[in-house]
Amino acid sequence: MARAYNFCAGPAALPEEVLFQAQEEIANWHGVGCSVMEMSHRSDEFVSIADEATQDFKDLLAIGDDYEVLFVQGGASSQFSMVPLNLLSDKTTADYVNTGQWSKKAISEAKRYCDVNVVASSEAENFTTVPDFDQWALSKDAAYLHYTPNETIGGVEFDFIPNVDAPLVADYSSSILSEPLDVSKFGLIYAGAQKNIGPAGLTIVIVRKDLLGKAKDFTPTMFDYQVHAKAGSMNNTPPTYAWYLSGLVFKWLKRQGGLKEMAEINKRKADKLYGYIDQSDFYSNPVDPRYRSRMNVPFVLADDQLDSKFLQKAEEARLLNLAGHRSVGGMRASIYNAVPERAVDALIDFMKAFEKDYA
Ligand SMILES: *Cc1c(COP(=O)(O)O)cnc(C)c1O
């Protein structure tokens, strides 16, 4: 059977071209006689794969030499602890913005290590918006400010980069590489790979070099950014296959024309889907239109009794993984870079047909 369109929030769709290339190379990479999975991470071959992937990632985001790019494990969730452990230094307070489920998790983990000042929260609005920046109650002496530019579950995305004095830390797990980004505005950016980069098991950290080397004494070795930076992310065995596959994705992104081109495609995809939802009485999206995510589009049906029917029919139409997050229900279409525009068209066609049959 042909491949389906996959709207999973993560692990998410990968570019088909990349999968076929990996298939071709899987058993015998470039004639060396073994798979990338079977290579020593210290071999010249793997080091060349890793270096090229890292350089392509830096090229895509135009990352300056004053930043380290680390390829680590433990998911974005481990960053919830690594950030305070490494960046608090001698400070005792960190600022956090609470815009949804992932912000909340980052906040609760940071509370183990410092006084968390929640500078603003949209919890009272059920996480359907971003608090106005001029209302944020910033601390005088925060070690950093942490926020979540794209809330994967609520489908809420910032349309601005906060301008604060403290180093800016962002969980870009679900929107990195979706558009050009001025990395120089940030102290640290992290992203789990399984949404908009590559396979699960890899997390990328971009950290300004002057923030390294200040980890708390009790920081586990593998949680210290400096250790990873000094070892070229090979203090221990890195997730080699995920690193390689992500490298293929970076090459694919370059072939598409880079992040400016991806931004245009992503905007067009999101505009189409929200446009259809908004003109329909049958589907709705609760998010403040200014802050709707270009990557994750949650929507509900007028009658939630039809949810399971919708999901069943969608699967029959080869549209996979449209169920909303288990904590919120409803539907969610994640339309990352690797989800082609024709997948969004197919989803809208399906939604129209379903509305006609069941409204
Ligand atoms: C998925 C996600 C996480 C958690 O990532 P893991 O790699 O599973 O730990 C954290 N933050 C955001 C914004 C996410 O989308």
Automatic annotation (TrEMBL):
Binding site for L-glutamate: R42
N6-(pyridoxal phosphate)lysine sites (modified residues): K195
A single Gene Ontology CC term: cytoplasm
Cofactor note: Binds 1 pyridoxal phosphate per subunit.
Cell compartments where the protein resides: Cytoplasm
Gene3D superfamilies: Aspartate Aminotransferase, domain 1, Type I PLP-dependent aspartate aminotransferase-like (Major domain)
PANTHER family associated with the record: PHOSPHOSERINE AMINOTRANSFERASE (PTHR43247:SF1)
Function according to Swiss-Prot or TrEMBL: Catalyzes the reversible conversion of 3-phosphohydroxypyruvate to phosphoserine and of 3-hydroxy-2-oxo-4-phosphonooxybutanoate to phosphohydroxythreonine.
Protein name in the entry: Phosphoserine aminotransferase
Source species of the chain: Litoribrevibacter albus
Source taxonomy: Bacteria, Pseudomonadati, Pseudomonadota, Gammaproteobacteria, Oceanospirillales
Gene name of the record: serC
